[in-house]
Amino acid sequence: MKIRTTSSTPKSKEIADLLNSKLSKGSARLFGFDCYKTILVKKSPFVGVQITRRKQELIIEGSLPSVFTSILSSFLMLEGFLYLFEIIFHNQWKNLETEVATVLSNQYK
User: How far apart are alpha carbons 15 and 30 in whole angstroms?
Assistant: First the structure.
């Protein structure tokens, strides 16, 4: 999901602080190097979103919120259970994407 911003894209720390104050269930943290940090939002051990900043847009994608669950999903993929994993959590990822997009749209559009 993409959100276009009217002015320059806000700093990652500003986005994380906004999400931490607005989301009832979930937490946002920074991941990556310096000014190119990605924001990871975690709602549960298997439900999260990743927010990537570009020039005048924010890209929101459902993802696993931690390194541990990413490694776990890799093992599941090897065993062929990834499709089941995706079916179970797909709707929850989309719901969190929508919730985060609503907060960001209200603030930065």
Answer: 10
Location of structure tokens 């696993």: 64
Distance in Å from the first CA to the final CA of the chain: 14
Q: What is the pLDDT averaged over residues 59-68?
A: 79
38 contacts 50 by C-beta, under 8 angstroms:
yes
Cα–Cα nearest to 61, from 90, 30, 103, 25: 90
pTM: 0.80
Report the C-alpha gap between 54 and 63 in whole angstroms: 18
Q: Distance between CA atoms of 89 and 65, rounded to whole angstroms? A: 12
CA–CA separation, 24 and 77 (whole Å): 32
Q: What are the tens digits of pLDDT across the range 68-89? A: 666 666 666 666 666 676 778 8
